[in-house]
Inverse folding.
């Protein structure tokens, strides 16, 4: 048996023993995860700085605080989420009990990306533990320091019978995926998402795919340009642009572009000073391969702001591109770096047509002080999430399900949605063992005169609509 197969079968045996099911067990593991976050905070800050010079403030906001918030929200609500949900019954089952049990799947595999290596591994883990599963975690090998920290220290906090960290590159992850898991939760690129889904299909394993793509940001003519510039620049240049929910490109009128450019320049200088390279608040591209890819996208259109690079440091300045064409390289793939192209459109309907002609994004941003404009875009487009007059902030609410649609993903998580993602909705009917005469009408030999009675007892009727309401 391969080491991976052995691991999965050891975890499945632990799951089958029932030890992960009691609420007290789940709470104890979640609290232990909280201690990991508290006690290893400094190590996390150092590892993320070593991997991609992530500013400590950004680590606090986007990794630690989000995990703590998710943990507390889960601990505050777990009792209510775990309760059986009793459902409406028909006449035939009035004396019985019919309910939905939130059943754990079993052994779950969580595969994480490198851009928020703590958040995107631990937030799904919180949901998987809360739902009573055993978990194999596979952090990204790209952020080596975080990978090592998680592999060496996290298992010391959790029950090793039920939770394990596997460190693996592409080849080994391919072998890991040959095993039968009961659920796979993947965060990463759409191309690898397809590979993961294909591997899962071999075992008919259900999946959640949290993928990426190009998030449009429509800026209407009616808005406070300074506020828009700050909110867009923050969302685009946070983590040096390596954020799945970053606004990927701006759509606006030519007149708005004229006003937005100086406001963006001002916002960038206000955030990172005259030379962002010297700012402690601006990160770096994670690796050389990723640097080369992002740098190549700078050749699209005309550079209006920024554009400076340094391969040694993997530095790319906060950059704004104008005169970008739809078929330029920067518009062919998710940018995932600190580059913001602006494309001009004539109207909100042009923007909607532009968005609808492309893959459905993970999130769609709209800036407008006019509710009609915001609602028009919300009504006429489709995306994983939607946020008006800000960027990224929709992710800070654990009760909003987070996930993509189409090319940007499948399924969702955060808060209750995580708990439900990692729970099988098991339907249960507990009937009494007696009262057999009540069952007789349905048995052969069939008697047609009993049919009306049977229908009355089991069929759902359309509710009458009250014309006065
Ligand atoms: P990636 O798809 O390259 O890697 C993600 C994970 O998959 C890593 O753990 C990696 O080891 C593994 N992997 C890579 N190739 C594999 C293969 N052939 N077979 C099996 N496993 C493989 O993604 P990334 O570069 O780490 O992250 C960037 C992407 O993730 C972007 O597209 C971004 O938008 C997306 N993302 C999405 C979300 C979200 O919540 N929707 C969040 C963060 C990142």
């Amino acid at each position: 048996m391969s080491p991976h197969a052995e691991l999965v079968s050891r975890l499945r045996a632990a799951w089958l023993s029932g030890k992960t099911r009691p609420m007290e067990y789940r709470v104890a593991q979640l609290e232990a995860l909280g201690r990991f976050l508290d006690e290893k905070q400094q190590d996390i800050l150092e590892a993320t700085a070593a991997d991609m010079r992530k500013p400590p403030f950004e680590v606090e906001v986007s990794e630690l605080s989000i995990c703590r918030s998710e943990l507390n929200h889960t601990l505050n609500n777990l009792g209510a989420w775990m309760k059986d949900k009793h459902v409406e019954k028909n006449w035939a089952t009035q004396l019985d009990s019919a309910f939905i049990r939130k059943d754990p799947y079993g052994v779950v595999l969580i595969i994480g990306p490198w851009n928020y290596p703590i958040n995107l591994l631990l937030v799904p883990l919180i949901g998987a533990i809360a739902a009573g599963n055993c978990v194999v975690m596979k952090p990204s090998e790209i952020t080596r320091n975080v990978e090592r920290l998680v592999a060496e220290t996290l298992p010391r906090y959790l029950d090793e019978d039920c939770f394990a960290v596997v460190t693996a590159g592409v080849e080994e992850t391919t072998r890991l995926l040959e095993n039968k898991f009961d659920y796979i939760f993947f965060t990463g690129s759409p191309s690898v998402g397809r590979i993961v889904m294909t591997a899962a299909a071999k075992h008919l394993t259900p999946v959640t795919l949290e993928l990426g793509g190009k998030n449009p940001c429509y800026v209407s003519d009616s808005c406070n340009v300074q506020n828009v510039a700050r909110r867009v620049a923050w969302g685009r240049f946070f983590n040096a642009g390596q954020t799945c929910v970053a606004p990927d490109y701006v759509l606006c009128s030519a007149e708005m572009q004229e006003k937005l450019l100086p406001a963006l320049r001002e916002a960038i200088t206000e955030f990172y000073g005259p030379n962002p390279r010297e700012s402690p608040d601006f990160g770096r591209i994670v690796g050389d391969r990723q640097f080369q890819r992002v740098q190549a996208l700078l050749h699209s259109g005309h550079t209006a702001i920024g554009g400076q690079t340094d391969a040694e440091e993997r530095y790319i300045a906060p950059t704004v591109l104008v005169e970008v064409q739809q078929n330029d390289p920067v518009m062919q793939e998710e940018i995932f770096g600190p580059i913001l192209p602006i494309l001009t459109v004539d109207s909100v309907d042009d923007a909607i047509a532009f968005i609808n002609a492309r893959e459905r994004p993970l999130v769609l941003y709209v800036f407008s002080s006019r509710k009609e404009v915001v609602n028009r875009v919300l009504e006429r487009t489709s995306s994983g999430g939607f946020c008006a007059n800000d960027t990224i902030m929709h992710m800070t609410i654990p009760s909003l399900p987070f996930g993509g649609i189409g090319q940007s993903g499948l399924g969702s998580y955060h808060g209750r949605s995580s708990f439900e993602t990692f729970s099988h909705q098991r339907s249960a009917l507990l009937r009494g063992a007696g009262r057999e005469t009540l069952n007789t009408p349905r048995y052969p030999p069939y008697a047609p005169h009993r049919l009306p009675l049977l229908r009355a007892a089991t069929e759902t009727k359309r509710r009458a609509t009250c014309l006065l309401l």
User: Anything to note?
Assistant: The mean pLDDT is 97. The CA atoms of residues 34 and 244 lie 25 Å apart.
